[in-house]
Amino acid sequence: MDTKYIFQKENFSLSNDELLLDETLFHNANGYIGVRSNYEEGYPTNFKTIRGMYLNGFYDIAPMKQAEKLCGLIEEKQIMVNTADTQGILIEINGESFSLFSGEVLKRTRTLDMLNGTTSRDILWRSPSGLELNIKFTRLTSFYMLPLFLVKVHITPINFSGTIKITSTHIGDVMNFFDPTDPRVAGESHRHIEVKNVIHDGNATILHAETITSKLNFCSAVSHKTKAARTKADGTTKIFEYDVNKGETIEFYKFSILCDSIRYPDYMDECIYLIKTAASLGESYFYDKQSEYLRKFWDNCSIDVDGDDDLTIALRYNLYQLLQSAGKDPNSNIAAKGLSGEGYEGHYFWDTEMYMQPFFTLTERETAKNLIRNRYTILEHAKQNAKILGHKQGAAYPWRTIMGRECSGYFPSGSAQYHISGDIAYAVIAYYLATKDKSLLAECGAEILIETARLWIDIGNYCEGKFHINEVTGPDEYTCLVNNNYYTNALAQYNLNWAVKSVQMLKEMGLADHVLNKTGVTDAELAAFTSAADAMNLPFDEKLGINPQDDSFLQKKMWEAHTVKEEETPLLLHYHPMYLYRHQICKQADTVLAHFILEDTQSLETIEKSFAYYERVTTHDSSLSTCIFSIVASKLGQVDKAYKYFGDSAKMDLFNTHKNTKDGIHTANMGGTYMAIVYGFGGLRIKESGLSLCPVLPEKWNSYNFSFLYEDAKISVKVMRDKTLVTLLHGTEKQITIKGKSYALINEIEVQ
Amino acid sequence: MDTKYIFQKENFSLSNDELLLDETLFHNANGYIGVRSNYEEGYPTNFKTIRGMYLNGFYDIAPMKQAEKLCGLIEEKQIMVNTADTQGILIEINGESFSLFSGEVLKRTRTLDMLNGTTSRDILWRSPSGLELNIKFTRLTSFYMLPLFLVKVHITPINFSGTIKITSTHIGDVMNFFDPTDPRVAGESHRHIEVKNVIHDGNATILHAETITSKLNFCSAVSHKTKAARTKADGTTKIFEYDVNKGETIEFYKFSILCDSIRYPDYMDECIYLIKTAASLGESYFYDKQSEYLRKFWDNCSIDVDGDDDLTIALRYNLYQLLQSAGKDPNSNIAAKGLSGEGYEGHYFWDTEMYMQPFFTLTERETAKNLIRNRYTILEHAKQNAKILGHKQGAAYPWRTIMGRECSGYFPSGSAQYHISGDIAYAVIAYYLATKDKSLLAECGAEILIETARLWIDIGNYCEGKFHINEVTGPDEYTCLVNNNYYTNALAQYNLNWAVKSVQMLKEMGLADHVLNKTGVTDAELAAFTSAADAMNLPFDEKLGINPQDDSFLQKKMWEAHTVKEEETPLLLHYHPMYLYRHQICKQADTVLAHFILEDTQSLETIEKSFAYYERVTTHDSSLSTCIFSIVASKLGQVDKAYKYFGDSAKMDLFNTHKNTKDGIHTANMGGTYMAIVYGFGGLRIKESGLSLCPVLPEKWNSYNFSFLYEDAKISVKVMRDKTLVTLLHGTEKQITIKGKSYALINEIEVQ
């Protein structure tokens, strides 16, 4: 067995902080359902826990009052709802309650098995009266049957025979987590679900609940498989009693199904059907299916670093989390924290398109497609949002959302980040370039490109022959509401050009009817797109030879990042926004990100100077920053620096370096570490001009390899000290540029 | 009697809208206590009323939650509290309740008598059963005894004899007004006072209450003077019964006293003492004192327009309201709505310094002095506010406040308006220039100048040899968080220079000890002030020959004000802020205001071009705008235009042109109309270089005159068609420039 798919903690700490962190790190999810790794039996009452089971895209509405009302400000937000709690499993041995906080824990291990798709908790416990047991919990959220959450418990008495009682709960009366002291999670308690009905059907209990404001519905069902001497029921709680002999193992399986009204119009019937089906198929079936699914997954996206096993595990952990987090249907997307916690309230950001979609575009196309389709399902909301912002046309995608309406309460670093519309357009184009799949463009991609292009026309204006985009915020939230943010303008230019290009391509293929009918776009309008793109104002400073982040960035007070004190970070928690806006200080990659995604817009010399300049003033207070700096450092041949930046980001959650992993994983950073290898060290680029690689190898590694899909082909890359091997695993011959030289990839190419 | 001191409405409408408006228009106030002109007997229950009695500077704290928490954002605000309600007087005639909404109102008149300082309501009423009475209510808030509110009721039966019952209430259980549909007043109901105790002392009832959060205290006392046949008491309510004969008049006087714990440490003793004193002095005493006070007031600030009596009344109305609104001690200032209503929650803004203080500086120096002292009492809060905003030094005056802490919930058009610190500095300097009173500078003025100058140093930074002030908002709230707002920079320059000058002057006079000790300012720091002032970046556009409102104003999309549709105004209620920020569109005078207050900073040609430019893009959605455009039009010799702008603003409240006078008067606009005559048409300027006039006469007027104080002198100006008379009413000889020519003013000068 390849141990680099195993992440394990032995004799883990029982401190509350560690428990909260591990609730995130060991959570189970499958893109639809997410379950935090709470203890089945709970913690002591004075412990804090974020106990939750979530459904991707399933939300309620919460008020978000503005301190001062102004036209168009957002006054309510969607929040990911904590649904029913089916985690509870209490164990009593001869009347003594099992708990890690009583008696003596002789051994304990938590494991995430990324090949088999399970987490487990393995405990050797001595009760206060001296009874010794081995108890192992194994959890799975099924990639095969998305609504299924399965818990297995095996209990083995070591030094006694006696009675064991298992109490299994199914609770509908749950709330979302709140913490009034932390601005990054909800500060107020709101009840979001109401139980409407409880049904007993055979061995299953089914609970029907409705969200308070959004009026969405879900059903949760629970059934058990075990051989107990006695069973009884108390409402939705079931109690199982066993007479056990020393050395004998009790097996207990708890099946939970969660069906929501978004995906399942007949959610109750479906829930009942699935709980019966799951129970009758049995646990082994799902373990097998899970392994099978993951074998395919790892086969598609295998990644390996020879010379740093921990890193390989961290990388795989990251990819596994992306898989767990990504919505598997067009009704959902990837939340900033995946399905691992309530940080950012389950909202979807630009993180998807710029940090996570690349991974799926290169390895799991169905997911990438769904992500684009999800943005298409909310296109009408984006058009409505544009109207709220005063625009006469176009689609302004919400900065943060679940179902499509904007949820950003502070618009200068929310709605003002118009670049998200360009980011979504960029992802549509990237998917096309990697797949050459015109059908998705015809179905929805081109329409997204047209409507976002229309937005740029409406935001911008000509001034002295240049097309200006004023009063927007780029990715760097430490400078808001600026004019001609380089990143935004460069992306808008790309968006405008590709809107025109996509319509032309579809017309040539006879596939343009849908987009032309839906958008009514005319040749004159397309010509206006081109004119604006051609005239786009891309700020450039002659003296420094760099692209200023925006028109006025360089005239502000310089604040060198190395002078920022540790205790002042992240700066946003310690300085009034206006103070930050008044300085040359960046939270994260902004112009440097533009230099990665649109590298041909500037000369290498400009990119090099820009990189050096922004390095001086970037604090990397955002988890989205270092991976981008790593990629551009690789591009510039600064491999040691690239490696340094990479190291900071790859292990962020496993080492909790941002101190808030308890609220959920940083999914975008996980995608970013993948990008830092494939686009960074590997130098992969997929452009209109074709496929290219420009690999470098960090000093500390012996080699690394990865594989990816390109058009009809699958290609693997192995970068070693003395050579690089590029192999066409399947598909037709490809032209590929490696380190600037063009090759025909038929079977394998070896480059020194 | 001069009827131009009388504002009267006969047979006024009884619509709810009109009643709400008249509650404001006929309110009584004296700078300490303010009472809305609510009907003593109330309205029908389905009518809306903003029933209130306020104390200037007396506040409670209300929460103001931010939609997204960010460092330093304001999360609570002060609000002017509605105190006890002593207005209630219910009248029954032979068992029939008097109400303007039953029976028949044969005649009705509301009057504001600005010479005697009273309001009255005179009604000829026929009851449903046919009884006819004359009822007259007369109200006064005393300028002599500030805590006193006095209501006189005279009732005369016309066609019957019978029984009349008067029920007089004194209610502590009151709330502030709220309206969830209007962003300009409080949207939520909060209880702000709690009655702690009720005391009966002789004929007086005294009520002691405390504010819920700020824990301030006040006492209200009520006593009556009347000759009733029978009286009884029910708690704080008193009932008086009379047996009256046809033609006989009942006289009823209700004395109320309101003492707060801010001014009166022994507020309860003081309240009891004052209610007894007031009752024993008797009503006539206060009527006489009131007339005496107002004779002096009008004598100091007499203003008259021959050829437009309505305008003369409107002007006097405005000055009278300024007198009613202005705090009479350093504990208070002038609220944006005076003491006439709850709009803007009783907050003090820059309106004081830039629009109202000029009137007091020229006519009522004690009040002007108190306003400066009030800003000095909150200097420590302003320093604290600077720290909240990230600054290492200096005083950042709050954009809106009562007791000194910032109450602005939306910082881009709140705290970002740093110019308020410059405005306060400007008012300190203006007071000095008009009075040459170095003692106030020594006492507090210079310290304010130093601390505000320090703020500019901390906000700004040098860039290519120029001193930049970035990320601030000028007076025009339709463009926020800009770089180098011309108004702000020009004012900062003036502030910095005068900080240095004031210390020099005080040193020369041997008066500098206090400011040097308090601020610790060094010669090096003063030199840095001068350097920054000298290097101040004042944006100038060579091509247009104007001062751009800020660095990027001219590159934005042009939105000509004449194309704005009526139904879109004010724009702030119809467009998202970001949309406004992205356009060349101004809410109000900004650069044009700078061209008035600091006219020597630019050439006349630049000012003329700027004026023409900003005219095109200004909507005057703020009531602070047209008066400034009028002044600058006068300066430029565009008298017809000046007259047009002036006409729009002088009668704003009397004609309710902004449709929100119900929430209170627009005190700043009232000061602005005064300025439009004295500084505008009269062309008065008081600068370091001396006193000057440059009078023009609007076509429609025959003449106008005004008088003002200058140094030790009082000077009157009468501008006629063919000549201007300038008279030294008292004081020593002055040098004066009239229409560019210098004169010695000994007795009178006549200029053609």
Would you kindly provide a brief summary of this structure?
Two copies of one chain form a homodimer. The first copy, chain A, has 752 residues and is of the alpha+beta class. Chain A is built from 18 helices and 32 strands.
- Give the % helix of chain A: 25-40%
Oligomer: homodimer
- Biggest interface, CB < 8 A: A-B, 53 and 53 residues
Rounded Rg of chain A? 27 Å
Q: What is the strand tally of chain A?
A: 32
Distance between the termini of chain A: 33 Å
Structural class, judged by helices and strands of chain A? alpha+beta
Shape of chain A: globular
Average of the residue pLDDT scores of chain A = 96
Widest sheet, order of strands of chain A: 1-9-10-11-12-19-16-15-14
Question: Count of helices of chain A?
Answer: 18
Regions with little confidence, pLDDT below 50 for 5+ residues of chain A: none
Strand % of chain A is: 15-25%
Query: How can the largest sheet of chain A be summarized?
Result: 9 strands, antiparallel
Name its key features.
about 30% helix, about 750 residues, globular, homodimer, 5-stranded antiparallel β-sheet, 9-stranded antiparallel β-sheet, alpha+beta
